[in-house]
Amino acid sequence: MTLMSSQKDKRIDPLVHFPQEILSVIFDKLLIRDAIECVRVCKAWYNRVPGLSRTPWKKMLLDCKKQNELPSCPPIFNDYIQSIAFFNYDDDVNTLFNHLNLIISWDCPQLTKLCK
To answer: What ranges in the chain are assigned the alpha helix state H?
Structure first.
């Protein structure tokens, strides 16, 4: 037990040691899904990760051919989603049904429009 507590004491948050300008360069190189995973690490990372404006998440586009699975937990931007458009679900009604149920479980308070 002593070993674990000493390991915890030695953990360092890498974002604390980088200037905001360097973080901007690093995070600009990430794919958006990777940047989203970074902000989900903890509240401190959520507040430090630059350039991830919350307004682009008002409209969510889902393409069945590109995205077979959605995350089971709500995305960090679920409070901002106002509309979701579904593409290429014509041949896969089961996936559409599963995605709709999952989206309902996310509890997006501003979601007012679903479209095809």
So the answer is: 2-10, 20-28, 32-39, 43-48, 93-106
Backbone angles phi, psi at 115, to 5 degrees: -145, 165
Chunked mean pLDDT (size 10), the chain, 116 residues = 53 77 77 74 74 65 79 75 88 88 89 90
Residue bearing tokens 């008002």: 58
Domain boundaries, position 43: 14-52
The model carries a pTM of 0.53
Question: String of b and e for 13-42 (b: at least 16 CB within 10 Å)?
Answer: eebeeeeeeebeeebeeeeeeebbebbeee
Q: Is residue 21 in some structural domain? A: yes
